[in-house]
Structures are given as C-alpha cells and as structure tokens.
C-alpha cells in the first residue's frame, strides 16, 4: 500500500469516525457504515465536510465531489470541472443582525441531468468570518488544482 493510499484511507477513517460521533438516527449511521463505506472502498479522498445537523456530507476526490444525503439515501457524484464557488462578504453592513448575513459562501454545481449540488456556509457574526474564510479557501484551492 503506497503512501498516497494510506493517506486516503486515513481520510476515510477520519470521515467515518466523525459520522459515528454525530447524534444521528441509527438507520443513517448504518447507511454510512455499510453502503457508503462499501461505495468508497479503496478510494483516496482529499478532504471531507459534514453537516452536523442533517448528516449530509461532501467527499472531495481528486477529480470530483460526492454528496451524500442520508435522509433521501442519495449519493450524487459531481465532476470537479462542473463545480463552482461563490463568495459574498458584505462588509457594508454596519451592524450584523439575524437577517443580515455578513459572510456567505457556497460550492455548487448544475449537472446536465439537473442534479444540483448546493453546499453553503454563512454567518451573521463577524467572529465566525475567519473560520468560514478558511473553509472557503480550501474549496477554492481544491477547485484550482
């Protein structure tokens, strides 16, 4: 097993460990443990993100992104060249409120079969901006490699 494969397997295990730590319905946990793990196999993943509230997740591969949505039991695959990133940093707002987002970013794709990827992060608080900018920077770096 080469070094690249070991790193990829580490990322898979890290992803599965984070899923296991979430307070998800046992059926969703089982779906990830059985179906998703079988689908990933020996795949080398670069990075992953998990929505702690919904259990949805993204797996970043070298040439594509896979979106997992456990509530609908969907695994959708998006070629990297069809994925885009949009960022809106509204620094004109004098005071952030619940209705005024000061920062938002999304990674999205519209595929030929009308399957849409829309993974967004946003905040109304200035203190969250550096964390979200770091996440956005990872997305942009990934899309530009």
Molecular structure report:
The protein has helices spanning 3-21, 26-40, 129-143, and strands spanning 47-50, 57-60, 64-69, 74-79, 83-89, 103-110, 116-123. It is α+β, with helices and mostly antiparallel strands and 145 residues long. It has one domain (3-143). The strands form two sheets. Strands 1-2-3-4 form a four-stranded antiparallel beta sheet, covered by helices on one side. Strands 5-6-7 form a three-stranded antiparallel beta sheet, with helices on one face. Strand 6 and strand 7 (116-123) form a beta hairpin. The radius of gyration is 16 Å and the shape is globular.
Structure characteristics:
145 residues; alpha+beta; four-stranded antiparallel sheet; three-stranded antiparallel sheet; 3 helices; 34% helix
Q: Report Rg.
A: 16 Å
Structural class: alpha+beta
**Biggest beta sheet attributes:** 4 strands, antiparallel
3D shape: globular
Portion of residues in helices? 25-40%
Task: Name the poorly predicted regions.
Answer: none
Quaternary status: single chain
Strands, count: 7
Q: List the secondary-structure elements in sequence, H or E.
A: HHEEEEEEEH
Count the DSSP helices.
3
| Domain unit count | 1
Strand order of the largest sheet: 1-2-3-4
Report the β-strand fraction as a percent range: 25-35%
């Amino acid at each position: 097993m080469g070094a690249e494969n070991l790193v990829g397997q580490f990322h898979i295990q890290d992803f599965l460990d984070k899923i296991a730590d979430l307070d998800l319905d046992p059926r969703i946990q089982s779906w990830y443990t059985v179906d998703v793990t079988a689908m990933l196999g020996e795949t080398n993943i670069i990075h992953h993100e998990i929505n702690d509230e919904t259990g949805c997740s993204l797996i970043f591969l070298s040439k594509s992104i896979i979106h997992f949505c456990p509530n609908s039991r969907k695994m959708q695959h998006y070629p990297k060249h069809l994925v885009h990133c949009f960022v809106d940093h509204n620094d004109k707002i004098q005071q952030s409120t619940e209705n005024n987002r000061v920062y938002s970013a999304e990674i999205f794709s519209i595929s030929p079969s009308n399957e849409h990827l829309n993974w967004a992060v946003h905040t109304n608080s200035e203190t969250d901006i550096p964390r979200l900018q770091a996440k956005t920077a990872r997305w942009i770096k990934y899309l530009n490699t």
